[in-house]
Design goal:
Length: about 300
């Protein structure tokens, strides 16, 4: 378990992270979301002791700097480009492993696991962005850590690579590890994450399971199509439902109860062509939750 308590970071008069408190539990994938400039990367740097701030981050009651062998406890990828371009992938991992007492066999295992074993002798300067990303993930995993912290791990990966990282992180969580992943790809987080930590302008917006976050920040509706939409709309409104027209023959009813709408149609004597529940997405919930906490916002074309 990772415990974050009252984490705060100032740059001059600007608060980059403000009084952030949450818990990241083991055995699940926790997605870390926020608009640009929300403080996600700063938070991750604070977690790893790369920046100084106020508050504390504990890995099972220990700060990162107090861990006896951090590489074997916490695996992190914050910047895939932070590798000497003249070194080979093998040399890069071997240097990390040597400092942590990790075997050569483990280095080769991890290179194979991320799909770089055949190019292990090539200089990193000739790697594509996706290959550098795989090497960064290998560096995070070489110590077989209990905690995995990744900043934008799918950056530069092709579709096969995205599917691979999704499966990898799920397997790590299923093994009981604590997995904390930031991303701007909401569709990926929706498929991958069990829990969410959402911040905006450095402040905590939510820390809860994905399904609870979506339920808290969106509404579920029933969509009904009928050859007599106007008569059914008036009947539903008289029955206390909030209704909005959609298309020529469709109504959107502000309720999650499809059975209630179906029953109302029978009572009103209205034929139904289609009836289904429309559930909102993580994207809908995210934009609703962060609407007042977005620093950089583009204008509509």
């Amino acid at each position: 378990m990772i415990t974050i308590r009252e984490l705060t970071k100032r740059y001059g008069n600007k608060l980059a992270v403000h009084d952030l408190t949450c818990t990241i539990r083991p055995g699940v994938v926790t997605g870390f979301l926020g608009p640009n400039g929300a403080g996600k990367s700063t938070t991750m740097r604070l977690m790893l002791g790369l920046d100084r701030g106020e508050g504390e981050v504990l890995f099972n009651d220990r700060r990162y700097r107090d861990l006896p062998n951090p590489v074997r406890s916490v695996g992190a990828l914050l910047d895939a480009g932070a590798v000497h371009p003249g070194r080979s992938a093998h040399q890069h991992l071997r240097m990390i492993a040597a400092g942590a007492g990790i075997s050569e066999q483990r280095v080769r295992e991890v290179l194979a696991a991320v799909g770089l074993d055949e190019v292990r002798s090539r200089r990193v300067g000739g790697f594509s962005l996706g290959m550098r990303q795989r090497l960064g993930i290998a560096a995070a995993l070489v110590g077989d850590p209990e905690y995995v912290i990744l900043d934008e791990p799918t950056n530069g990966l092709d579709p096969e690579g995205v599917r691979w990282i999704r499966s990898l992180l799920r397997n790590l969580a299923d093994e009981g590890r604590t997995v904390f992943v930031s991303s701007h790809l909401l569709s990926e987080i929706a498929q991958l994450a069990d829990d969410l930590v959402v911040i905006g302008e450095g402040r905590l917006i939510a820390a809860q399971p994905v399904r609870d976050f979506i339920a808290a920040h969106t509404r579920t509706h029933v969509v009904v199509r009928t050859p007599d939409p106007e008569r059914f709309r008036k009947w539903l409104q008289q029955a206390g439902f909030q209704v909005e027209p959609e298309d020529v023959d469709a109504l959107v009813v502000d309720t999650p109860n499809a059975d209630a709408v179906s029953s109302a149609a029978r009572q009103a004597g209205v034929a139904i062509r289609e009836l289904h529940t429309r559930r909102s997405s993580l994207e809908d919930a995210f934009f609703n939750a962060t609407a007042n906490a977005t620093t950089y916002r583009g204008e509509a074309a």
